[in-house]
# Entry
Amino acid sequence: MALLIFVWTNTSFAADKIGFIHIQEIIQNSNAGKKAAEEFKKLLGKSRKASRAMENDVKNMKDELDKQSSVMTAGARSDKETAYQKKNCAITRFWSMTPTKNSRNAIRNILRN
# Structure
């Protein structure tokens, strides 16, 4: 009799339902997800423009340094090399930021609003 009651009580818990959330589908089909995707595309476009501008600045600095290094004083050359290295490090730091972290933060910010 006790076994029958145990089996009967366990089957009553089987009525509980488990749901799954498909995040990709939600992002693609919901209004908030579409808005997040638009904002992410804008953010990505801004980062690409900023990186191109930084890369062009560094390239121009390097070209100028190469052209003028023979006529510069040691102090001026050292100053230009230091400025070039700082800009080059800034680009490295810029690109070392993981896109996944940026995208997660952008989506979180949009969904909070």
